[in-house]
Every structure is written in C-alpha cells, then in structure tokens.
Recover the amino acids of this structure.
C-alpha cells in the first residue's frame, strides 16, 4: 500500500497539465501553418521523412519526468513489514465439554491443541507467550514468558470441563499481560489475546466485561470460531448439537479491534494460526521512497534530452 506524506504538492501537476495543453495547441497550429505555406508535394521534398512518433517522444518523456518530480515533491511512501522485536501473546483455549465433538478429527480439542502448540513454537523467540484455559471458570495454566516448553506442555495437558466462560477467559488473559508488564516494567510492549472457542458464554462474567477490560488495557482480542454447524456431543446416550457461535466471537473481536477467524477443520485452523502469527510477528511502517521518484524523473528527463540530441541535434 502506498500514500503521500505531503499531497498538497500535487498542485504542481496543474502547470504540467497546462504545458500538455500548450504543446497540443502548438502542434495543431504548426500543422495548419505548414499546409498554408506550401503544397503537399513541396512539403514532401523539403521535410525529411521521419516517423511521426519521434517528434513527440522527447516532449512526452520530458512531461513524464515533470510528473515524476511533482509526485516526488509530495513525498510518496510505501508500507513495509518490519519484524517486531518483542510482544506478549496470550493463547486462550476453550475446554468446555462441547470441544469433545468429533466433527473435527479426532476431536475439536485435540486438533486445537496440536495447532496451538505449532503456533507457539513458530512465534519469535523474544515474544512472551502464556496460556489460559476456560470452561466454567478460567485459569492461567502457563504464565507469559519466553519458556516455550512450559507453554506447549500446558496446552497438551488441557482437560475438558463443564460450562463456557469466555468473558472470564478474556479477563484472565488481560490480567496476566498486565501482571507481566508490572513485573518487568515494560508495559508498552504490544500484546494480544488469541482466543479459540466453539460456543457462547454460559457462565462467569459477561463477554462485555471482558471487552471493557481488554479495551482499558489496549489489548486486542482475535477470536477463532472453531468447529462446524453440525457438531454434536454424546451426553448420557443422547446426541446434543453444539454448533459454533460465529457471530458472538466475531462481535468480541470487533469490539476490541481484533480479527475474527473461522475454522471448520484442522487444516483451516493451521492456516488461521499461520495468518495470526504473521500479523503479530510484523508491524507495518511507512517508508519514504522520494529519492526513487526523483531519480526516476531525472533519468527520464535525461533520456528525453539524449533522444532530442540524437534525432534533432538539439536538447529541447
């Protein structure tokens, strides 16, 4: 993506447009004058036969150079990805009984565990990573730090429980991030919660309270709605539908300036975590490319002068 730091300088294109109009007007007048001056057979003897485009190419290149220099004055910038030096990531995983559904093989939870472990392993080494598990309540099962083994072991040891306390999961994640900031004195380090769930908040504090806590701390929450609409779990011999509540999780992400994702298979979940890792691991910064536009404009102007000297023995 590109932008202009000083777009007001684009007003310089107005005189360039005037020059284009004057050039076209001059060519029209020259053609009329030549026809009045002599008959066509005489013109053919007096004027050497040259391709018509040669006469216009140097002027066209010169005008193009003017345009490039006008754009250079407006200080063009392009967005580049710069690796982050540090960040804190909390991986929050739903361990409610609905995560036992087998619509994602072997189960939602087991597939989520494998994908989350890979996500943690792929994060930059200097990132702090913590893990929160939530069902009827929530708990920090791995405090944020650079110990990847502690985080991955915590993910692999997750066990199912009753209830779904999404709001509690968000609040626990935010509290862990803030506690790390107080402990290290690095409260300005960027942080994000990546929350995976398949259901609706049924216990604990409301999701709105989690949103408020995340917004106060300036921590976006990216959500992954995981599973299919046809998922079921068996309870006392009966199949209970456990469809994914995509809308509620998307609302949570939107309210905290996070990103909302959906995944209906282990492969899709891997892709989601890859995408999140790329967005977290890099920040987009504008980079000034004015010198390139200046150099381009000068090179085009020099080419116009060289062609004019070569074909017409004059610079202009």
């Amino acid at each position: 993506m590109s932008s202009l730091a000083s777009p007001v300088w684009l007003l310089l294109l107005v005189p360039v447009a005037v020059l284009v109009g004057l050039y076209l007007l001059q060519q029209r007048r020259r053609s009329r004058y030549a026809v009045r001056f002599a008959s066509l057979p005489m013109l053919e003897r007096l004027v050497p036969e040259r391709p018509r485009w040669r006469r216009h190419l140097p002027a066209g290149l010169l005008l193009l150079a003017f345009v490039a220099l006008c754009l250079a004055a407006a200080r063009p910038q392009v967005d580049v990805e710069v690796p982050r030096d540090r960040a804190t990531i909390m991986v929050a995983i739903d361990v409610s009984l609905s995560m036992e559904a087998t619509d994602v093989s072997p189960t939602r939870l087991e597939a989520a565990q494998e994908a989350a472990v890979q996500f943690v392993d792929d994060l930059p080494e200097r990132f702090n990573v913590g893990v929160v598990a939530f069902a009827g309540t929530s708990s920090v099962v791995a405090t944020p730090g650079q110990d990847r083994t502690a985080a991955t072991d915590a993910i692999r040891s997750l066990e199912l429980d009753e209830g779904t306390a999404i709001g509690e999961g968000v609040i626990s994640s935010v509290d862990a991030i803030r506690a790390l900031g107080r402990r290290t004195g690095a409260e300005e380090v960027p942080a994000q919660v990546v929350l995976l769930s398949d259901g609706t908040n049924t216990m604990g504090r409301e999701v709105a309270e989690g949103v408020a806590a995340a917004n106060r701390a300036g921590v976006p929450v990216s959500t992954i709605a995981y599973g299919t609409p046809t998922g079921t779990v068996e309870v006392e011999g009966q199949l209970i539908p456990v469809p994914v509540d995509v809308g509620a999780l998307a609302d949570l992400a939107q309210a905290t300036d996070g990103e909302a994702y959906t995944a209906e298979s282990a492969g899709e979940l891997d892709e989601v975590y890859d995408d999140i890792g790329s967005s977290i691991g890099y920040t987009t910064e504008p980079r000034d490319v004015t010198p390139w536009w200046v150099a381009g404009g000068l090179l085009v102007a020099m080419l116009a002068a060289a062609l004019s000297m070569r074909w017409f023995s004059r610079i202009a």
Observations:
- The chain has two domains: 2-79+287-312, 84-264.
- The longest strand covers residues 76-83.
